[in-house]
Design goal:
Organism: Vitis vinifera
Strand content: 15-25%
Mean pLDDT: 77
Distance between the termini: 32 Å
Number of domains: 1
Helix content: 25-40%
Protein name: Retrotransposon gag domain-containing protein
Largest sheet: 3 strands, antiparallel
Number of strands: 3
C-alpha cells in the first residue's frame, strides 16, 4: 500500500511499488480548493484549481497527480473510471473533465 512520509519539510507519497508519486510542501493543504461535487460550473473549478496549484509552484505533473483530491468522492469514482491514456497532459485532463 502507498505511504505518506515527511522528508525535510516535504510530504512524499510513494505508490505500491515504492515509486515516487508526489512531493508536496508539508504546509500545503488541498482544503484551499473547494472540492467539486458535480454541481456548478466545472470551468470555474478548473480555473480555481489551476490558479491555486500554480500559486503554490506546482508543475503540470503535480497538477495532474493531485487533481482527484480536488473532487468529491462520487466525482472521483466517475473520473477515475475514464481512460487514463486520454489525459496525459494537463490540457488533455481538463478537456476530458469538461466532457
Amino acid at each position: 500500500m502507498g505511504q505518506l512520509r515527511l522528508s525535510d519539510g516535504w510530504m512524499v507519497w510513494d505508490d505500491f511499488d515504492g515509486l515516487l508519486v508526489a512531493n508536496l510542501l508539508a504546509k500545503f493543504r488541498m482544503s484551499e480548493i473547494e472540492r467539486y461535487m458535480g454541481i456548478g460550473c466545472p470551468h470555474i473549478h478548473l480555473g480555481l484549481y489551476s490558479t491555486v496549484m500554480m500559486a503554490h509552484g506546482f508543475d503540470e505533473a503535480h497538477m495532474i497527480m493531485l487533481f482527484l483530491m480536488s473532487l468529491s468522492e462520487a466525482v472521483q469514482r466517475w473520473f477515475s473510471s475514464l481512460d487514463v491514456s486520454r489525459r496525459p497532459t494537463w490540457d488533455d485532463l481538463a478537456q476530458e473533465f469538461l466532457r
